[in-house]
């Protein structure tokens, strides 16, 4: 029989019920429980998007489709496991299950296209430690795929699609903000590739679509004592209005799925501000289980394996 290769597919994770929000938030805060007020704010945000985030189901669909596509394309036999950073099933749980299933070798990928030591880097650290604990040989961990041709094509399609919703010559009039999750400013001193990679993805899409006005932007910064990369999209919306901008498109290229940071931070919070500022704001649809995104993931994994 062919030796099975485990595929560790890692994503952020979301609470399974509103009762789990406290444990989830505590995990994100590295074991420090939030104050009751901060917890309530987060519960309110989940309630505002309908009670829970669809992230778990979407991640599950991405993992299942990726496994299927890998097995169609390659003579190896792949078994994919979903492992979350902050919620069950955790990355550690996925590795443990691999070991129980008799898997000896695995490759890992994060469902986030841009590399930062503070994002993808911490998934990798957890994966390496768990692999060590359970005796799984990690063949490789994919670092980034922010310029993968299928990834770019999927985003180009979405930008083209949503531009139709603006009147007139949208490519010439609309200001496009390509956004990603903010991170603490100290990543700049650490020469982290994250801001540059974000810029590269944005630049290629803008060129392909022929956009006149675009820039990158930061969203969803955490509330901690340290400064985060800015300006935040909320601040930027205010300054754009002062500059006379009336139409804005947000393309959240740092995220691949519908979840709180998209459904609340853009669709509710930023949209409310846009209404007040009388700006016409649209957002590109998330990739979710788009076959082009699955194609990107499968190609990146096979290319990575070919190097080992
Ligand atoms: O839909 C859902 O339930 C999950 C939404 C969600 C995604 C997500 C992605 C990223 N985060 C990243 C970094 C940080 C850092 C902190 C931080 C805090 C939070 C909190 C919530 C939350 N994040 Fe998140 N993130 C999501 C949700 N994130 C909730 C806590 C409340 C708040 O601050 O808003 C700050 C930790 C600290 O306090 O020290 C740092 C990065 C990503 C994108 C890459 C990835 O997906 O891994 C980076 C989705």
From TrEMBL:
Fe-coproporphyrin III binds at residues 12, 29, 45-46, 53, 123. Fe(2+) binds at residues 181, 261. The gene is cpfC. Its main location: cytoplasm. Keywords: Cytoplasm, Heme biosynthesis, Iron, Lyase, Metal-binding, Porphyrin biosynthesis. It catalyses: Fe-coproporphyrin III + 2 H(+) = coproporphyrin III + Fe(2+). The keyword Ribosomal protein does not apply. The keyword Iron applies. This is Coproporphyrin III ferrochelatase. GO terms for molecular function: lyase activity. It is found in: Cytoplasm. Its EC number is 4.99.1.9. Involved in coproporphyrin-dependent heme b biosynthesis. Catalyzes the insertion of ferrous iron into coproporphyrin III to form Fe-coproporphyrin III. Belongs to the ferrochelatase family. It comes from the Bacteria. Pathway: Porphyrin-containing compound metabolism; protoheme biosynthesis.
